[in-house]
């Protein structure tokens, strides 16, 4: 599985927010990771819709985690953001090639995907978040 840039930015944004005691803003996330503010805003919008992030408008507003980092599964974030996590297109369909009816590779790849997602779902945001001093040094 190769993750999209959007998933990368979503995970980085969540890790950043997990190190903050106060609300942050999209510009601070974008600046730290040298990412476009528009890309971060798009990711934050998705994360807010999915309930991972709380976005508060106005004076004193900003973005913050809506769920404690210990309760956010990396695998769940990946599953939320990614459209397709299949190693090959045949794993997600029944009729993608001439040998689909007797192909054994499809089952092997499906099991590999299952094991990978099972592992990612066992890892929490808290497990992968760097310390605030580590981020502040950047």
Main attributes of the structure:
138 residues, mainly alpha, Rrf2 family transcriptional regulator, DNA-binding, single chain
What can you see in these coordinates?
It comes from Rhodopirellula halodulae. This is Rrf2 family transcriptional regulator. Keywords: DNA-binding. It holds the Pfam family Rrf2. The chain has 138 residues and is mainly α. The chain has a single domain, classed as Winged helix-like DNA-binding domain superfamily/Winged helix DNA-binding domain (Arc Repressor Mutant, subunit A), CATH 1.10.10. It has 8 helices and 2 strands, in the order H-H-H-E-E-H-H-H-H-H. The protein has helices at residues 5-18, 26-33, 37-49, 74-81, 89-92, 105-122, 125-128, 132-136; strands spanning 53-56, 62-65. Helix 1 packs across helix 4. It starts with a helix and ends with a helix.
Element layout with pairings:
Blueprint: H1 5-18, H2 26-33, H3 37-49, E1 53-56, E2 62-65, H4 74-81, H5 89-92, H6 105-122, H7 125-128, H8 132-136
Antiparallel strand pairs: 1-2
Helix pairs in contact: 1-3, 1-4, 2-3, 4-6
């Amino acid at each position: 599985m190769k993750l999209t840039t959007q998933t990368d930015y979503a995970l980085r944004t969540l890790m950043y927010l997990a190190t903050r005691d106060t609300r942050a803003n999209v510009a601070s996330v974008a600046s730290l990771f040298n990412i476009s503010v528009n890309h971060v805003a798009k990711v934050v919008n998705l994360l807010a819709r999915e309930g991972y992030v709380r976005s508060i408008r106005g004076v004193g507003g900003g973005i913050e985690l809506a769920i404690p980092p210990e309760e956010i599964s990396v695998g769940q974030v990946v599953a939320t953001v990614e459209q397709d996590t299949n190693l090959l297109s045949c794993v997600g369909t029944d009729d993608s090639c001439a040998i689909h009816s007797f192909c054994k590779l499809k089952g092997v790849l499906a099991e590999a995907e299952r094991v990978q997602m099972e592992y990612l779902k066992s890892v929490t945001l808290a497990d992968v978040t760097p310390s605030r001093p580590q981020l502040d040094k950047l």
